[in-house]
Amino acid sequence: MKTVSRVFNHEPNVRPETRAKVEAAAKALNYRPNPSARSLAGHRSYLIALAYDNPPGHYIMDLMSGVVDACETAHYSMMMRPVDYDSHSHVDVIAECVGQYAPDGILLVPPLTDDAALLARLAEAGTRLAFVSPLDAQARVGARMDERAAVRELMAHLVALGHRRIAHVKGRRDHGATEWRLAGYRDGLRAAGLAYDKSLVIPGEFSFESGSAALQALLALDAPPTAIFAANDDTAAGVMHAALARGLRVPDDLSVCGFDDQPMARQLWPSLTTVRQPVAAMGRIATEQLLLSIRDASAGTMVEVPYALSLRDSTGPVPTRAGRRR
C-alpha cells in the first residue's frame, strides 16, 4: 500500500516498471485518490492556489489551463485567488487564503511576483512559492521567458525594414514585463546605432485604450514614428484602431507590432506581428516545479521557456513619404 501511495504522490524511489504497473491498474479500475484521505494521511491539502491581479482575460485563461494540466497529472486541485493590487489589500487577502485553505503552495503572477511585502508575509507563513515571469533574477522556482531578447529581435526586424523612428508604448508601471520590454526596445535601438528619444516612449497600461491614446500623442510630434512597438497585443490593437480612425493604413503608413500572440493577433486586419509567449506551457511548467519543491524543499528550479517571433502583415517597409502620417 505504501508503494501505491508513493506513486500517486509522485515521490521518488519507485522503480519505473513498478510505477507503470500501479498506474495501469489504477486506470483499469478507474481509481481516483480520495482528497480528504490523502490530506489526513500526508499532512497536506493537495491544493495549489493561483494568485493574480486582473491580467487580460486571455492570459489568465491560458495560464490556468497549464496549471490545471499539471495539477491533474499530480492529482492536485487548484483554486484561483484574484486580488485587486491597486487597493493595497492584496497582502491580507492572500494571507487569509493561506490561513483558511492551507494550500500546499501558491503560484504568483506579475506584479505579485515582485511585491516585497507579500513575499515577506508568505515567507513568514512558510508557504511554498513559484513564480511566472518574476522580475527578480533570484526567484528560484517557476517559469520565465527572455522577454528582453525577444523584443531586441523584434526591433531588429523593424530596423531591417528601414524604420528609424520607432516608438514604444509601455505597459503598467509596476509590472516586470514593462521593464524587460523597455530594456529590449533600448537594446534594439543601441544595436542599430539609433539614439533613444524619450518623446517616442509613451506610458501605457497593457490596454486597448492606452494604445489608442498613445497613437494620438505620437502623431502630434513634429516627426511622428514610422513604426510602433506596443507592450502587448491589446495595446497594439488600440494603436491600429486609432490609426484606422485617422485614415492611416497599416503597414503602408505605419507599422505596428505587439507582444504575447493572443488569438486576436491573427484575427486583426491586417494580422499582427508579435512575439509568441507560451503562456499555457509556462503555467504548467511553473506548477510542476512548485510541486517538486513541495515534495522536496531543495527541488524545483526556474525554467526558461523559448519564444518565437510571429511575423505577419502589420509590419512593412518604411513609408517613402512619412509626412502623410500627420
| CATH class annotation of the largest domain | Alpha Beta
Provide the β-strand percentage band.
5-15%
Q: How many separate structural domains? A: 3
Side-by-side strand order of the widest sheet: 2-1-3-4-5-11
Mean pLDDT across the residues is 89
**By helix and strand content, what is the structural category?**
alpha/beta
CATH architecture descriptor name of the largest domain: 3-Layer(aba) Sandwich
What is the ordering of alpha helices and beta strands? Answer: HHHEHEHEHEEHEHEHEHEHEHEE
Largest sheet: 6 strands, parallel
Rg over CA atoms: 23 Å
- Name the poorly predicted regions: 322-326
What is CATH's topology name of the largest domain?
Answer: Rossmann fold
Give the CATH superfamily of the largest domain. Response regulator
Shape: elongated
Distance between the termini: 75 Å
The percent of residues in helical segments reads 40-55%
* Distinct helical segment count: 12
| Number of strand elements | 12
Keywords: DNA-binding, Transcription, Transcription regulation
InterPro entries: HTH_LacI, LacI/GalR-like_sensor, Lambda_DNA-bd_dom_sf, Peripla_BP_I
Organism: Lysobacter hankyongensis
Protein name: LacI family DNA-binding transcriptional regulator
